[in-house]
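Chapter summary example.
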Amino acid sequence: MSNISLTASMRSNLQSLQNTQKLFDSVQDRLATGNKVNSALDNPDSFFTAAALNNRASDLNNLMDSMGQAVQTLKAADQGIQTLTKLVEQAKSLTSTALDASIVKTEVAGSLKIDSYDNAVNKIASIDGVNDEDKFIIRSGDATKVESNFNQLFSTETALTTFVTGASTNDEMKLDVYVSDTKYTVDVSNQASYSEATVGDLVDEINNTTGLKDLVTASVVDGKLEITAKDPNDFVVVTDTKTNYADGDSITAQTDSTLAEKMGLDSSNIEIQVSAETSEDLANKITSLASEAGLDITAAIVDGKLHITDNLGSDLSIVDKYNYNEAGAGNLSADVGYDGSAATFGITGADKTGSNLRASYAEQFDGLRTQMNMIVKDTGYKGVNLLNGDDLTVIFNESRTSKLEIAGVTYDALGLGITATENEWKTNADIEAQLSQVETALTNLRAQASTFGNNLAVVQTREDFTQGMIDTLTAGADKLTLADMNEEAANMLALQTRQQLGTNSLSLASQSAQGVLRLF
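The structure predicted for these 520 residues follows.
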């Protein structure tokens, strides 16, 4: 091109066409991208300002995702609270219904009159010729089953020294199991030495003791030792093996066993020693000892007969306790065994005439507690469970300086303050204490629902605000960079016209040069 000479008019027209083409290309680029500023070369100020606005909008948009997930987490917690509230309201209804439920008392009436005698012991002595050291046991509870109530759960591997410490002989590791009118002594030393004996050894011994193994089954259930009669018509009473030896007895190493007591196998028992009191005194003693043991059992002489009543409707089991007569002091073979103190009054056996309709409500209440715990476990969302102690932090701006910290709560049954039922709701006090727990739980649930609702409203409001900010930032960036498509379209038409005119002008300018050809 540098060696070719163009006329001034042709060169001017050519440059005009080249400039038009550049503008044409620029307009085409704007139409294609929709932006009038596509790079820093177009407009540095607008380009970098728009980039900053778009970057912030992008950061906020990323936060919108976490806000949306926070909303879902709060909604999950709110759903959990609503469900918990319904369950607690059901529990409240159960407690109210249980207060109106009736209890049919269990009453065992002696079949033999004692009103013709000055005192109870004389009645026994006149029939059986024994001393005034006779004893019998009264047990309240499910007649067919005895369950330990040790203050800790244990397994078959738990050492019996957990319950009885400081013992020196295997003879101390014994207990008596009464099945109806028959007593069986269980000696764990048949299974293992005292220092090595475990709960499992005791279970095995009960299940292998001759005679007893055909009547009961022993096992560890939920950390407690249970001894259950195989025949539902039998009743079971467990007590410690205790012996009364006369002063000077040569077997001084033996002491009273406390295994049943320490394991809580005799927790619902009271032991009555028949001494030289009147029959009314004996009845008063039974009532007093039962009260001391926390049992609602009363006794009275009605029409000359001994009546024993469980006021809470539990089964009553009454057995005679084997006793050594002091007459054979120092010589066990001469001791006389006696099982007749309770039988003398005609009251041995078990009575199941009572009932506690409240027990079924208590069982349903505990079932609702279990459901509450399950609801709480299932309320988590993406690993965050606001009802199980987890906290949630929601970030609202890109610098993390604006945020909302949401404190979680522990709202399983215990967290709500709702404990397991006690005593099968046999007393109004038991139910009213539970009712108070339920009402407090309802108050807390409603307050927490309000708190979570307020948090949810805050997050949703910030979510709306953030979306508005994103729109504002994006619109601001667009104002700096977006092209006016109408204007650019008009520019395109104008440039096309200019290009055509330029082409025609260049053609005219070249015609003067073409005239030289005619000279040849």
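To summarize the output: The first strand starts at residue 103 and ends at 104.
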